[in-house]
C-alpha cells in the first residue's frame, strides 16, 4: 500500500538537477540523489526507525517497509491478556497506519537477502532493490521445537502467551482454572523481555488471591537460568520477591519434552514437573531468511557490531531490535535506544563518514509485580541493574529495583508513549539512549568489574 507517491524510485538524478533540498552530506557520495532504504519488519524497531528516517531525510530517501502481515501488536500488553486486564483486539493496530506519510508499506514475506545484488527477494517473487538495508525482523516463536509441547493438551492445558492468539486462549483457560499446579516454563534463552515470565508469576499470584484460589495453587517457575535473572544484584532482589510470594523456582531447568497426556514436563536431565496448567515461553529463533541469507549466527540472529549495529556481512546492511545478536535484552526499549545510534550511522554511511560506536547495550523495563505495583530495571552491556532512582537522582520519581505504585503507573502510561511518541519516532525527553549512572546505588557493584 503506497501512502504517498514515492517519487523517483529508479531515477538517478544528477547532483545539479531539480532544485531539490539536499543535505550537504548527501551531495558527492555518489551520483544518485534519492537513496532507497529498505526495512524488513514493521514491528517496534522497523516502524520507529522508518519514521525517524523520514523525519530526518524527508523526500531525500525512499523508504519502504516490508512485513508479512498488517497487524502491529503492543507486545508488553500480552502479559495482561490472560488476566482479563486488557482485551486482545485493543492491543493491535494496522501497521501501515503507524508509518508517516511518504513511507511505502509493502505486504509480503521476505524469502532472502541477496547481499551481492543489493536486493531482497519476497516469497511472491518480487525483488526489491536497496541502497541501505535495515533488518528488523524480530524473532520467531518455535513451540513445535519442544517435543510434545504442541501435541495432546496443546490449547487445553499447555499454552503460550507471547502471541495474541495464545494469550487469548490462555485467558479462557484461566477463567476455568480451579487450582492445582501452574507451571511457567522458559524453554531456553534468549527470549523477548526476559522478565515477562516473572511478571506472569507475580500477576498469577495476585489474580489467584483475588479469586480465592491461591491456597489451592502452587506456582512454579522453571527456568534455564541459575536464578531469577541473569545479573546478580537483580537476581537476588527478584529471587527474594519470588520467595516472599511463595513462588517456587526450579533453576537450571532445561526443558526437553512435554507429555501432554500425563501433564508432565521433563528436562533433558529427566527432572519431572507435573502440571495442571503449563504456560510455556517457547524456544525463540531468528526469522528464517536471516540464516539463509548468510546474515545470521547459529540461532538465526543477525551478526552485528554491538556498538554500531552494522552487520558483519555487508557495510550497507544494518539491523536493530530482537533480530540482532547483541548481548543485551530483547526488548522494545532496546530497539528504541538502538534507533538513536542507527539514525546517526545511516546518515554517516550515506555521507561516507566513519560510523559512531554509540550503542552501549542500554535496556530498561518495568516489572509488574501485582497488587498495582511494579519495579524498574535500567542497565547496559557493562553495568548491571542497580537500586536507586530514575531518571533523576534523589527525586526519581521512579524507583529502581524497588516495588512502587508509581512504577506500576509508569508501566501503564507507557502504552500511550509507545503509540504516540516512540513508534512515530519522536524523542522521549528525559530518557537518554545511553545509560546514565546518576541516581544509581553503585555500592553494590563488585570490586573488579564482572557485571556483564
Ligand atoms: C509478553 C511480552 C512482554 C513484553 N514486555 C516488554 C516490556 O515491558 N518492555 C519492553 O521494552 N519490551 C517488551 N517486550 C518485547 C518487545 O515487544 C520486543 O522486544 C519488540 O517488539 C522488538 O521489536 P522488533 O522490531 O525487534 O520485533 P517485532 O516488533 O516483533 O517486529 C518484527 C517484525 O518482523 C516481521 N517479520 C519477521 N519475519 C518476516 C519475514 N520473513 N517477512 C516479512 N516480515 C517479517 C514480523 O511480522 C514483525 O512484524 C515484550 C514482549 C512480549 C512477548
Overview of this structure, please?
Helices cover 21% and strands 24% of the residues. A hairpin with a 4-residue loop joins strand 6 (110-114) and strand 7. The chain contains seven helices and 24 strands. The protein has 452 residues and is of the alpha/beta class. The chain has helices spanning 44-57, 164-175, 196-210, 232-244, 288-292, 332-350, 405-422, and strands spanning 35-40, 61-67, 72-73, 92-93, 104-107, 110-114, 119-122, 127-129, 132-135, 139-141, 158-159, 180-186, 217-222, 247-250, 255-259, 264-267, 272-274, 277-281, 284-286, 317-319, 363-370, 373-379, 388-392, 396-400.
Largest sheet: 5 strands, parallel
Please identify the top-level CATH class of the largest domain: Alpha Beta
Helix content: 10-25%
Write down the Rg.
23 Å
Can you list the ligands bound to this structure?
flavin-adenine dinucleotide
Strand-pairing-aware structural class: alpha/beta
CATH topology name of the largest domain, in short, is: FAD/NAD(P)-binding domain
Strand content: 15-25%
What's the arrangement of strands in the largest beta sheet?
5-2-1-9-20
Which keywords apply here?
FAD/NAD(P)-binding domain; alpha/beta; five-stranded parallel sheet; 24 strands; 3 domains; 21% helix; 7 helices; 452 residues; binds flavin-adenine dinucleotide
Give a brief description.
With about 450 residues, this protein is α/β, with parallel strands linked by helices. It is built from 7 helices and 24 strands. Strand 15 and strand 16 form a beta hairpin.
Amino acid at each position: 500500500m503506497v501512502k504517498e507517491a514515492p517519487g523517483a524510485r529508479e531515477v538517478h538524478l544528477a547532483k545539479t538537477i531539480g532544485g531539490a533540498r539536499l543535505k550537504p552530506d548527501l551531495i558527492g557520495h555518489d551520483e544518485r540523489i534519492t537513496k532507497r532504504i529498505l526495512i524488513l519488519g514493521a514491528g517496534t524497531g522497523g516502524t520507529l526507525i522508518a519514521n525517524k528516517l523520514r523525519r530526518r531525510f524527508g523526500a531525500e530517501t525512499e523508504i519502504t517497509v516490508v512485513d508479512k502481515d498488517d497487524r502491529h501488536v503492543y507486545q508488553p500488553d500480552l502479559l495482561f491478556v490472560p488476566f482479563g486486564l486488557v482485551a486482545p483486539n485493543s492491543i493491535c493496530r494496522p501497521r501501515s497506519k503507524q508509518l508517516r506519510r511518504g513511507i511505502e508499506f509493502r505486504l509480503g514475506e521476505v524469502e532472502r537477502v541477496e547481499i551481492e545484488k543489493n536486493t531482497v527477494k519476497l516469497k511472491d517473487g518480487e525483488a526489491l532493490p536497496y541502497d541501505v538495508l535495515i533488518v528488523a525482523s524480530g524473532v520467531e516463536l518455535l513451540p513445535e521445537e519442544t517435543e510434545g509441547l504442541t501435541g495432546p493438551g496443546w490449547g487445553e492445558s499447555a499454552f503460550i502467551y507471547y502471541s495474541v492468539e495464545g494469550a487469548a486462549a490462555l485467558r479462557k483457560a484461566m477463567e476455568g482454572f480451579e487450582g492445582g499446579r501452574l507451571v511457567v516454563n522458559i524453554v531456553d534463552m534468549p527470549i523477548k523481555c526476559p522478565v515477562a515470565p516473572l511478571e506472569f508469576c507475580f500477576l498469577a499470584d495476585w489474580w489467584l488471591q483475588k479469586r480465592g484460589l491461591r491456597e489451592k495453587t502452587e506456582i512454579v517457575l522453571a527456568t534455564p537460568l541459575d536464578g531469577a535473572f541473569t545479573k546478580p544484584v537483580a537476581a537476588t532482589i527478584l529471587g527474594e520477591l519470588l520467595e516472599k510470594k511463595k513462588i517456587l523456582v526450579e533453576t537450571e531447568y532445561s526443558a526437553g519434552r512435554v507429555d501432554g497426556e500425563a501433564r508432565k514436563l521433563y528436562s533433558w536431565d529427566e527432572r519431572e514437573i507435573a502440571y495442571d496448567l503449563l504456560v510455556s515461553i517457547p524456544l525463540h529463533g531468528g526469522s528464517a531468511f536471516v540464516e539463509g541469507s548468510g546474515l545470521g549466527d547459529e540461532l538465526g540472529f543477525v551478526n552485528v557490531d554491538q556498538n554500531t549495529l552494522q552487520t558483519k556481512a555487508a557495510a550497507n546492511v544494518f539491523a536493530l531490535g530482537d533480530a540482532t545478536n547483541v548481548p543485551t535484552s530483547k526488548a522494545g526499549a532496546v530497539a528504541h535506544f538502538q534507533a538513536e545510534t542507527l539514525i546517526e550511522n545511516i546518515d554517516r554511511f550515506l555521507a561516507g563518514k566513519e560510523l559512531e560506536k554509540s550503542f552501549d547495550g542500554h535496556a530498561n523495563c518495568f516489572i509488574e509485580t501485582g497488587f498495582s505495583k511494579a519495579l524498574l530495571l535500567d542497565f547496559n552491556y557493562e553495568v548491571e541493574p542497580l537500586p536507586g532512582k530514575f531518571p533523576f537522582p534523589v527525586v526519581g520519581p521512579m524507583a529502581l529495583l524497588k516495588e512502587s505504585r508509581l512504577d506500576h503507573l509508569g508501566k501503564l502510561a507507557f502504552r500511550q508513549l509507545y503509540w504516540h511518541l516512540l513508534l512515530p519516532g519522536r524523542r522521549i525527553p528525559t530518557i537518554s539512549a545511553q545509560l546514565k549512572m546518576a541516581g544509581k546505588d553503585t555500592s553494590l557493584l563488585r570490586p573488579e568489574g564482572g557485571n556483564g
